[in-house]
Amino acid sequence: MATLRVIPAPAQALLGSDALAHVVTRNADGSPQVSVVWCGVRGDEVVFCTEGDTVKIRNLRRDPRIVLSIEDEARNLAGAQQHLVVHGTATIADTVDATLCDELCRTYVGNADHPTNLKHSPTAVTVTVAVERLAGNGPWTG
Fold first, then answer.
1. Which of 21, 31, 23, 88 is nearest to 57 (CA)?
2. What are 15-66's pLDDT values in tens digits?
3. In a domain? residue 78
4. How far apart are CA 56 and CA 72, in angstroms?
5. I need a surface site. Which of 17, 26, 78, 124 has the fewest CB within 10 A?
6. Phi and psi (nearest 5°) for 94?
7. For the segment 98-128, what is each residue's pLDDT rounded down to a tens digit?
8. How far apart are CA 81 and CA 104, in angstroms?
9. 70: domain CATH number?
10. Domain for residue 3, yes or no?
11. What's the structural domain count of the chain?
């Protein structure tokens, strides 16, 4: 599938906020695996850091297809919660992007030197998602 050329500004804003992303990958038997990550956006790619020995990373090494679901605080005119669904293909860098880790810690907990900062882990990796399609309920679907 072709990569989306431009992530619309409302989707960029949500991806750059402190909204958590639910990451869906596929287990070897095809069943879904869901986990939660802090994510950010760089250009037109979604990025996150995680430990390299997690189920989601093992799944992505086998099958790089990924879906992220991010819930917005806003509701639409019908009262439904807005949410962004990102479909894409993941690339794993076997090193951690320390700058990204600091940015995510500042966004999510207000402190780049937070103890959960993955830049301190020797097994952490950086995941970059090439966005292929956006869906969900919000201004990014128009």
1. 23
2. 999 999 999 999 999 999 999 999 999 999 999 999 999 999 999 999 999 9
3. yes
4. 23
5. 78
6. -75, 15
7. 999 999 999 999 988 777 778 888 899 999 9
8. 24
9. 2.30.110.10
10. no
11. 1
- Residues near 117 by Cβ (< 8 Å), separated by ≥ 6? 101, 102, 105
Structural element, H or E, at residue 126: strand 124-137
Kindly state the tokens that stand for 71.
């819930």
Domain that holds residue 111: 9-141
Token pair listed for 77: 């005119």
Supply 107's token pair.
Answer: 């966004």
CB atoms within 10 A of CB 45: 19
In a domain, 74, yes or no: yes
Residue 4 counted as domain residue: no
Amino acid identity for residue 73 in this structure: E
The rounded distance, in Å, linking the Cα atoms of 129 and 44 is: 9
Closest CA to 114 of 123, 125, 105: 105
